[in-house]
């Protein structure tokens, strides 16, 4: 059995600061005209927030912030519904119920609904002023599988990818705005997170001159399926077969390693002092859709 997910990762510069949503619908329509089989379109971090680089002031971000039931989100939901696709439009500045400022990745369905939203748990300290999120988020794509969302610096914390995989994510979608020299390390982390969790990882970075690009798609055994060679604006397309996750977990990475089957019923829990908790063998295996 095959569970194909045709996707397009749009490595692009941020939308203009004066009117970040203006022309975005046309951009997505043009994308689908070029790649009509696309079911999931993903854009970089802060793509629609009117910033032309890593934000230098909290005021700039506060000005861009809206609640998730605001006009920007309604426009994006309508766009996804009109085009009949899953849309992750990068991340947006979200105004919380108590005035918090979150860096949030929304997920819109082909029916034109906001079906999930993830608030970045690990803002890049001390450079980012966001309030951190407090929960991990997955979203079901009916008939295909489950995706999990992380944002940029989250990839540096292995707990995020592990938790998403445990929640049943078969693809981790990672919108990024990396403008610094550490994109080389992020490419390693994308492969490592894919390998140790046996999931697909797709990481889409901002294009130059703002971002360093090099977006990529990694399979559940850590092989790079597609990669932008530089920071130039481009689109990466691929068709992921989510049954590859099932295959790799069943037969092992390189036909060998089956980390999710590590424990037996006779094994005792392992204390994890760092977390004030433990690994419980009875709870180790990931959820299934």
From TrEMBL:
Keywords, A to Z, come to: Hydrolase
Q: Could you tell me which Pfam families the record lists for this protein?
A: CN_hydrolase
Q: Which SUPFAM superfamilies match?
A: Carbon-nitrogen hydrolase
Question: Which residue intervals define the domain CN hydrolase in the entry?
Answer: 5-242
Which stretch is the leader sequence?
none
Name of the protein:
CN hydrolase domain-containing protein
């Amino acid at each position: 059995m095959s569970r194909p997910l045709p996707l397009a990762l749009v490595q692009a510069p941020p939308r203009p600061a004066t009117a970040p949503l203006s022309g975005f619908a046309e951009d997505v329509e043009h994308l689908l005209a070029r790649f009509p089989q696309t079911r999931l379109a993903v854009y970089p971090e802060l793509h629609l927030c009117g910033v032309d680089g890593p934000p230098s002031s909290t005021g700039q971000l506060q000005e861009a912030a809206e609640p998730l039931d605001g006009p920007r989100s309604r426009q994006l939901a309508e766009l996804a519904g009109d085009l009949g696709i899953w849309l992750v439009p990068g991340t947006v500045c979200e105004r919380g119920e108590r005035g918090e400022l979150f860096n949030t990745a929304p997920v819109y369905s082909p029916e034109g609904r906001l079906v999930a939203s993830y608030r970045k748990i690990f803002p890049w300290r001390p450079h980012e002023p966001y309030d951190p999120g407090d929960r991990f988020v997955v979203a079901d794509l009916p008939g295909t599988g489950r995706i999990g969302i992380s944002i940029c610096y989250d990839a540096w914390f292995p707990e995020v990818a592990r938790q998403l995989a445990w929640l049943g994510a078969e693809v981790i979608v990672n919108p990024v705005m990396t403008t610094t020299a550490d994109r080389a390390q992020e490419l390693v982390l994308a492969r490592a997170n894919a390998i140790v969790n046996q999931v697909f990882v797709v990481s889409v970075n901002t294009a130059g001159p703002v971002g360093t690009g090099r977006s990529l798609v990694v399979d559940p055994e850590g092989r790079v399926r597609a990669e932008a060679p530089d920071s130039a604006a481009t689109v990466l397309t691929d068709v992921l077969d989510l049954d590859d996750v099932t295959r790799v977990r069943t037969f092992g990475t390189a036909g060998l390693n089956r980390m999710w089957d590590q424990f037996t019923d006779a094994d005792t829990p392992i204390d994890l002092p760092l977390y004030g908790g433990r690994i419980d063998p009875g709870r180790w295996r990931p959820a299934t859709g």
